Amino acid sequence: MTSTLTPATHRASFTLADEITARQAVDVLTEVFFEGDAAVAAFERPDGRWDVTVHFADAPDEALVRELVGGAAGPAVAEAVSFDLVEAKDWVKASLDDLVPVPAGRFVVHGSHDRARVPTNKLGIEIEAALAFGTGHHGTTRGCLLLLDHVLKSRRPRRVLDLGTGTGVLGIAAAKALHRPLLASDIDLPSVRVARENAAINSVGPLVRIISATGFAAPDFAHDGPFDLVLANILANPLRQLAGPMRQHLAPKAHVILSGLLTPQARGVTAAYRARGLVPVKHIRIEGWCGLLLRRAG
Question: CB-side exposure of 272: number of CA atoms within 13 Å?
Fold first, then answer.
C-alpha cells in the first residue's frame, strides 16, 4: 500500500442550529475562499445540529473568518469558532488500521488488505478505506445491505436501480447476488468515476452501468425501467423530493430501500412515499440511522 501523507492543515470549526443556517454559512465561505485555498464541509449531527469545518492550506485570517461566519449565523456563533492545526498524517494507513471487514447478511464489505478474511460462503465487496463514506462502516450503508439481503431471500428482481450510488457498494452487492445488469447513478462526477473503478475491482464492471444524473432527469431511467427494486442511500430531504418521480419509475409490487435518514426523519420520509402508494414493509436502525423497506401497493 502506498503511503499517503496528508500535509498539516489549519482548521476552523463551529456548530450551527439548523440546515438552513449551515447552508448559508457554507455558501458565504465557499464564495470568499476559492478552491485550493480552503475546503468547506458541513455534516448533520444525530441531534439535528450541524457541524461546519473549514480546512486551510495556510493559516487563515481569523478575524475575517469570524466576520464571515457572523454575517451568516450571528455574533454568538462567530465568537465560538475554534481554530487549530491538524497534524500531518497518513490517513489511508490510519483508516486501514481502524477498519475491519463489515458483515451484512450475505455480504461482507472489506478493503483490499482483508480479502483473505472474507468467508467462502459470503459475497465480498471490496471498497478501499480511503473512500470514507460508503465503505460499509457507516450505519446507512450497512442498513441498506441488510435490507437488500432480506429482499433477495424471497425475490429476484429483474430491473434494479442504485440511485445516488456513491462508491457503488450497493449496486455492486446487487450485481454480485443477482448476476444481472443494473443501472446506477450519481449527481457527483468523481463518485461516478470511483464507482466504476470499484465495479471493475469487484469483477462486475460489465453488469453495473453507472451514469451521472440529477434525480430521475436522464432518459436512461425510462429506458431501463420500470424498476423492480430501487436502492437509494441519500439524505432525507432529497428522498422526500424524489418520492413522486420514483413512483413513476416503479414496476407493480416493486420494492424500494431508502436510507441516509436519521431516526427522527424516518416518519416524514415514510409519509411522503405512503402518499404515493408505497407501503412500509420493514425498517432497521443502526447507530442512530434508519433504513426503510417499502413496497409499491398493487
Answer: 19
Q: Looking at domain 5-91, which CATH architecture does it have? A: 2-Layer Sandwich (3.30)
Looking at CATH, the fold of the domain delimited by 99-296 is given as Rossmann fold (3.40.50)
Q: Which residues pair with 186 in a beta bridge?
A: 212
Taking 70 as the threshold, does the pLDDT of residue 203 lie above it? Answer: yes
Q: Where in the chain is the domain with CATH 3.40.50.150?
A: 99-296
pLDDT tens readout for residues 47-78? 888 999 998 878 899 999 999 999 999 999 99
DSSP 8: P
CA distance 263 to 154: 27
What is the separation of C-alpha 60 from the centre of its chain, rounded to a whole number of angstroms?
A: 30
For CATH 3.30.70.2880, the residue range(s) in the chain are: 5-91
CB contact at 8 A, 27 and 75: no
Task: State how far the Cα of 112 lies from the Cα of 31, in Å rounded to an integer.
Answer: 39
3-class DSSP state for residue 40?
strand
Set of cell numbers at residue 165: 450510488
Edge-to-edge strands, sheet with 123-126: 102-104, 107-110, 123-126
The overall pTM is greater than 0.85: no
- DSSP-derived 3-state class of residue 236: helix
